[in-house]
TrEMBL record:
Protein name as annotated: D-alanyl-D-alanine carboxypeptidase/D-alanyl-D-alanine-endopeptidase
PANTHER family xrefs: D-ALANYL-D-ALANINE CARBOXYPEPTIDASE, PENICILLIN-SENSITIVE CARBOXYPEPTIDASE A
Lineage top rank: taxon: Bacteria
Protein's gene: dacB
UniProt entry keywords in alphabetical sequence: Carboxypeptidase, Hydrolase, Protease, Signal
Family according to the record: Belongs to the peptidase S13 family.
Keyword Membrane annotated: no
Species assigned in the record: Bifidobacterium catulorum
Amino acid sequence: MVAASAVITVALGLGYAVADAYDIAPGPLSVEPVQTIRFPQAASAVAATPLVGGVGADKGVDEARATALVDKFAKAKGVGKDFSIIIADAKGDPVVERNQGVAREPASTMKTLTAFAATASLDMSSTLDTETYLDGDTLVLKGNGDMLLGSGANDERHVNGRAGVATLAQRTAQALKAKGVTTVSVAYDDSLFGSKRFPDTIAENNEGDDMLYAAPMSSMAIDEGRNWSGTTKPADPDVESAFPPRFADSAAKTAESFVAQLKRQGIAVNGGIAKGEAPAGKPIASVSSARLSEVMGFMLRNSDNTEAELFGRLTALKTGQDNSPEGAAAAVKAALEKAGIDTDGLHIADCSGLSAGSRLTATTLMQVQAKYLETGDSTAPASEGLAVSGLSGTAAKRNIARSAAGLVRLKTGTLGGVTSMTGNVSRTGGGTLVFAVIVNNPDNMWEAILAVDDLVGHLPEL
């Protein structure tokens, strides 16, 4: 009975297969040749066109309207008499200017000079690596300038925290165990920036020992050395919205965090953490910061003083200037002069504009913006990193006309007696212009800020 049933089952199966092959029953089998689908030749093709137009360097700026805007600004309540302003076309040829050659305190618009010098001198696709070396039975932690380390694992979504101390500890422990090493002494190498870590006059605007707005230079730091104890840490590490005190020795604090993480990975540590020097050769483990181009955008959008000074110091090291705040200032000035930018009256107290005593002219600020447009890709990280009106960074909440949203790439500047702004503008009628405005000692700071915003909000109309 079973045998008969099996024969019937096989017969039915063979019968269905034959029916499938001749397309009588549904299924994957077929004896018909495969037909190649042919598509007709396209009748026409749409030619590719650029998504973004050129800067429109030859398109003139309405001088009469620009003059009217400047005259209105000069008479605005709160501005006072201590101001400089310049509006120029995309080539940097002035259209309207007032007191443009008077050197004034620039506040954070100084960062645009540093950004230009850094992009002209450094490989902006490179990273700052934090490394570990094994020197006998001593593990040496070495920093190369990443002051935006995270305490946890690498965070690919953010600039601040892209490289994580926990990830470095994990990779280091894995490398040590592969060598049969389970116990080490630990030292850290913080020699990158020499002995002078702060500009001379920064304390006046940096809340003294609390250092709320800038950290001393360090070869490595977790979140720029911020001490969040007792302060709510912002949810987005790439948006600086709170200013806690900072640790004076960021590298030592980073080493402490690293050792704690290393112990969690099963590596025993003998004694305390010493200062040391990394040996020659290759590291056994490392983590990499965001690319310098990304750090540049972080610096400009947040107006981050620490990263601005860092770019100055890196530029000094790259170009052979002294390893000091003064060397950083000299490196920035040399890069500007090499590019043909007017540096008359320029004095750089630091590379961020936070320190008291910096001076520059509106002409210098304007020519930096014009040079961005001229040089294009070579300085793109600096020009593209600027905050955008109504959309990003320090420009997002300024009182600039809604009609100008997305059309002005700018850098703001604010100190106790300073409001300033510089940038480049996409005009609604086509073409581009550049501008700079500096107000020192205004009659009323808030009214002066509003006057600057009102002026800039109308620039796309020119």
